[in-house]
Amino acid sequence: xxxxxxxxxxxxxxxxxxxxxxxxxxxxxxxxxxxxxxxxxxxxxxxxxxxxxxxxxxxxxxxxxxxxxxxxxxxxxxxxxxxxxxxxxxxxxxxxxx
Length: 98
Description:
The chain has 98 residues and is mainly α. 82% of the residues lie in helices and 0% in strands. It has 2 helices and no strands. The chain has helices spanning 8-36, 46-96. α1 (8-36) packs antiparallel against α2 (46-96). It starts with 7 loop residues before the first helix and ends with a helix.
């Protein structure tokens, strides 16, 4: 049996850091979106306009998704810090009583 040593305080601090990064990234994406989505098409044809629209949408979507992923990672760390510590301590105690 493998026993993991988990420091809940360290995992919690990491989760808080990730939550802060998610918030900053989300705010940055929201603040930059108007500027970055105001890209002028290269030409005056329909293809240039369509390409510009796709690039604008793709940037906003990808950047927003990255911010959301940071938030999910923070949530997962928070849960892991709380539950894994309890489980690992139970496993450690069981290993020591053998």
